């Protein structure tokens, strides 16, 4: 008995060992390999030149999000790797590096951290290759508002020009009414974004306050180092308020040079691009009371999620998050949540289906940011305007605009444009 | 085109003063860069396409010195001398190797240097823009002249540039070393035959030319954002200045720089959409009518 049992037992052990070995040699590694296969996230963005901070701050945010999920064990055992490429801000290069990321580096998903011109180039590539893509930096409305651009695998997780125009126009009209600001001038960079952004802002400011009159419009060159002639021209025109779509280092130079003339002592200033912490901190003498659109603020919205995001971000980056940073972090959350729901399946269609209509709580908490399923763009993100103060948190007294109001006017705008 | 606004500005002392000062602010900084470019071309016969890199170097050196010492004077001196020193090294070890060579070769060498400088700045200072900020001594309300306003710092900038320009002119026109340099521009073989170390002189002239770019960078640092590649835009305008003023002429550079300054300052009032057109138009007219420039002389070497 004992012998038989022993014999059977030995055979069984041998068989079992053989089966195990076979499994180990063929089946098991296959399964283990599938589970452990790294999910590659491709990030084409601008990492050099005057707007490098767009790309570097985006990259910090994407890396932060995926490092956090890697540290938590990944998804279904699968870890993430972020592969970035510098497009140098050139659309042709953006298209090329995106193809490389997909075809040569084997990226499963693209997070497109390009500025608008590059985003349209990336858009064509990902549409062509049918891969999941989230645009994270382009604010140009037509990228998602124009139905011709629609693709079921492509989304925008970035603020949209038309949303900001409605919010900015509504805020500016309110201040104009309160303070009697009727004479307005603009000073924006002379290229597509500068002109479109300024026109949309003025359009909605006039919708909400028809007494606003534009007395002059100045168009300094993009990346101009010196704004003296524009500033002295503004001093001659003597507007009561100035709107500017200047951004980045150009805006820093404009504010510092305007300070020399004390331009803001008698002129109200409204800026679409001042609210980014690296800009606010780069200005050595930030005047009080400048009006700025929300870009990012560690105290707004006031939520534990926002504080946690900012704290984690400053540990890996040399500055507080930018507007691009939160957008990229939110985009990463959409991807992570979609992969959770598909158990790590990277099929583009399956992921796109999950992201459509999804709401993520990170990085702002509250009701969260929603990816609208009708046009694949986000809503319910912060579109507030506030006023500058000379020390941290740099911008205070944020005034939010109701999203219902924004969506309503956006619908009308889409009809005007023939998008709906 | 709004000539009415232009006429009304010229008839108002407040507007005229403010815009004239704007012209001087733009013009004098351009003059500093262009005079260096012109000096190097006049004596060495080399078109220094890398001149913008020295402007950038001066600005960044001034920025870091100011960060470390909080002294604008030290920042200014460090920016000027630092750029001058880099210029001497560049002349001795790089550009002197292509003297007399094809202009395309010189262009390639300079372009390589621009790219290397930009990358070095990215590595040392990072790709983000930097702002030095206004030194406390100049953080004053703008000064009023006949109803027009001029910031205190810009008054300093204009006066400093004028003084440096005057010193440069005096040094070249009225001193013994200036005479030697002028002779060097016309007949270097003869200067060498007289026992003067021309190699040393070439390096010194290149150093002074680079120092002028460094001075412009240091003067610009408190009001302009510093970025890798910042030298390019000022280089293009400086070339317009040297073409109009005449390659090799310091006085020509001053006149042309002021011409550009006045075009931009009053163009902003009268023809804001055609300022660049006028600037390049002036350059084209000069090239057609007097290719050597308003006060230029022919290539010496």
Largest sheet of chain A: 7 strands, mixed
The protein's oligomeric status is heterodimer
Average of pLDDT of chain B? 93
Strand content of chain A: 15-25%
Notes on the protein architecture:
- The complex is a heterodimer of chains A (420) and B (301).
- With 420 residues, chain A is an alpha/beta fold.
- Chain A has 2 domains: 201 residues, Rossmann fold; 170 residues, Rossmann fold (3-Layer(aba) Sandwich), CATH 3.40.50.
- In chain A, 49% of the residues lie in helices and 15% in strands.
- Chain A contains 14 helices and 15 strands.
- In chain A, α6 crosses α7, α6 crosses α14 and α12 packs across α13.
- The termini of chain A are far apart.
- The N terminus of chain A is likely disordered.
- In chain B, strands 1-2 form a two-stranded antiparallel sheet.
- In chain B, β1 and β2 form a beta hairpin.
- Chain B starts with a helix and ends in a 12-residue tail after the last helix.
- At the A-B interface, α2, α8 and α9 of A face α2 and α11 of B.
Summarize the structure.
The complex is a heterodimer of chains A (420) and B (301). With 420 residues, chain A is an alpha/beta fold. Chain A has helices at residues 2-36, 52-71, 91-103, 116-129, 142-145, 161-179, 192-208, 228-237, 248-260, 277-282, 304-316, 323-341, 348-355, 403-417; strands at 39-45, 80-86, 109-112, 132-135, 154-156, 183-187, 213-218, 241-244, 268-271, 291-293, 359-360, 369-372, 377-379, 385-388, 395-399.
Key attributes of the depicted protein:
heterodimer; A: about 425 residues; alpha/beta; Rossmann fold; seven-stranded mixed β-sheet; five-stranded parallel β-sheet; B: about 300 residues; mainly alpha; two-stranded antiparallel sheet; 12 helices; globular
Helix-strand blueprint:
The complex is a heterodimer of chains A (about 425) and B (about 300).
Chain A: H1 2-36, E1 39-45, H2 52-71, E2 80-86, H3 91-103, E3 109-112, H4 116-129, E4 132-135, H5 142-145, E5 154-156, H6 161-179, E6 183-187, H7 192-208, E7 213-218, H8 228-237, E8 241-244, H9 248-260, E9 268-271, H10 277-282, E10 291-293, H11 304-316, H12 323-341, H13 348-355, E11 359-360, E12 369-372, E13 377-379, E14 385-388, E15 395-399, H14 403-417
Helix pairs in contact in A: 2-12, 3-4, 6-7, 6-14, 12-13
Chain B: H1 3-11, H2 13-44, H3 51-69, H4 72-93, H5 103-125, E1 143-145, E2 148-150, H6 152-174, H7 176-186, H8 188-193, H9 198-220, H10 231-245, H11 250-270, H12 275-289
Antiparallel strand pairs in B: 1-2
Helix pairs in contact in B: 1-11, 2-6, 2-9, 2-10, 2-11, 3-4, 3-5, 3-9, 3-10, 4-9, 6-7, 10-11, 10-12, 11-12
């Amino acid at each position: 008995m004992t012998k038989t049992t022993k014999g059977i037992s030995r055979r069984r052990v041998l068989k079992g060992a053989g089966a195990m070995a076979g499994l180990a040699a063929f089946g098991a590694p296959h399964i283990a390999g599938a589970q452990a296969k790294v999910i590659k996230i491709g990030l084409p963005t601008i990492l050099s030149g005057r707007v490098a901070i767009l790309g570097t701050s985006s990259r910090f945010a994407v890396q932060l999000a995926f490092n956090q999920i890697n540290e938590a064990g990944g998804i279904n055992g699968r870890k993430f790797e972020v592969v970035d490429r510098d497009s140098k801000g050139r659309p042709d290069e953006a298209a090329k590096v995106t193809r490389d990321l997909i075809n040569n580096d084997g990226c499963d998903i693209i997070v497109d951290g390009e500025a608008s011109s590059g985003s349209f180039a990336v858009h064509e590539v990902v549409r062509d290759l049918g891969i999941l893509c989230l645009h994270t930096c382009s604010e140009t409305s037509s990228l998602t508002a124009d139905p011709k651009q629609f693709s079921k695998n492509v989304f925008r997780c970035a603020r949209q020009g038309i949303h900001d125009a409605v919010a900015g126009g509504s805020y500016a009209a309110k201040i104009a009414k309160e303070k009697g600001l009727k004479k307005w001038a603009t000073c924006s960079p002379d290229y597509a974004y500068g002109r479109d952004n300024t026109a949309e802002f003025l359009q909605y400011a006039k919708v909400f306050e028809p007494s606003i009159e534009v007395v002059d419009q100045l168009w300094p060159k993009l990346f101009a180092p010196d704004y003296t002639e524009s500033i002295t021209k503004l001093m001659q025109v003597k507007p009561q308020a100035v709107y500017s779509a200047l951004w980045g280092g150009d805006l820093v130079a404009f504010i510092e040079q305007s300070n020399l003339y004390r331009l803001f002592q008698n002129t109200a200033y409204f800026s679409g691009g001042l609210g980014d912490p690296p800009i606010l901190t780069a200005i050595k003498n930030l005047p009080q009371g400048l009006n700025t659109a929300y870009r990012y603020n560690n105290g707004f919205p006031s939520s534990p999620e926002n504080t946690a995001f900012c704290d984690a971000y400053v540990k890996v980056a040399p500055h507080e998050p930018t507007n691009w940073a939160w957008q990229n972090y939110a985009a990463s959350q959409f991807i992570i949540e979609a992969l959770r729901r598909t158990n790590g399946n990277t099929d583009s269609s399956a992921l796109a289906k999950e992201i459509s209509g999804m709401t993520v709580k990170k990085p702002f908490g509250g009701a969260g940011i929603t990816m609208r399923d009708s046009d694949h763009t986000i809503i319910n993100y912060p579109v507030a305007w506030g006023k500058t103060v000379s020390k941290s948190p740099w911008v205070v007294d944020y005034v939010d605009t109701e999203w219902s109001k924004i969506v309503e006017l956006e619908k009308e705008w889409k009809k005007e444009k023939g998008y709906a | 085109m709004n000539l009415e606004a232009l006429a009304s500005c010229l008839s108002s002392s407040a507007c005229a003063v403010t815009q004239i000062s704007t012209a001087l602010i733009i013009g004098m900084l351009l003059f500093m860069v262009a005079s260096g470019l012109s000096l190097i071309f006049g004596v060495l016969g080399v078109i220094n396409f890398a001149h913008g890199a020295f402007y950038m170097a001066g600005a960044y050196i001034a920025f870091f010195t100011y960060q470390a010492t909080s002294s604008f004077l030290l920042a200014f001196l460090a920016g000027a001398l630092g750029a001058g020193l880099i210029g001497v090294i560049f002349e001795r070890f790089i550009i002197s190797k292509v003297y007399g060579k094809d202009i395309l070769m010189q262009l390639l060498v300079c372009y390589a240097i621009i790219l290397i400088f930009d990358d070095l700045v990215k590595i040392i200072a990072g790709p983000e823009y930097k702002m030095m900020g206004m030194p406390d001594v100049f953080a004053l309300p703008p000064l009023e002249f006949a109803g027009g306003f001029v910031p205190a710092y810009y008054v300093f900038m204009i006066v400093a540039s004028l003084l440096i320009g005057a010193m440069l002119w005096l040094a070249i026109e009225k001193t013994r070393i200036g005479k030697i340099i002028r002779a060097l521009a016309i007949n270097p073989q003869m200067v060498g035959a007289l026992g003067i170390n021309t190699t040393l002189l070439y390096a010194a002239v290149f150093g002074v030319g680079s120092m002028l770019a460094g001075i412009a960078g240091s003067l610009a640092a408190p009001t302009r954002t510093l970025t890798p590649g910042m030298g390019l835009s000022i280089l293009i305008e400086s070339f317009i200045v040297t073409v109009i003023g005449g390659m090799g002429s310091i006085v020509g550079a001053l006149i042309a720089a002021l011409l550009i300054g006045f075009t931009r300052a009053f163009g902003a009032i009268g023809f804001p959409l055609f300022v660049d057109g006028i600037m390049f138009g002036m350059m084209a007219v000069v090239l057609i009518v007097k290719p050597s420039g308003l006060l230029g002389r022919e290539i010496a070497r």
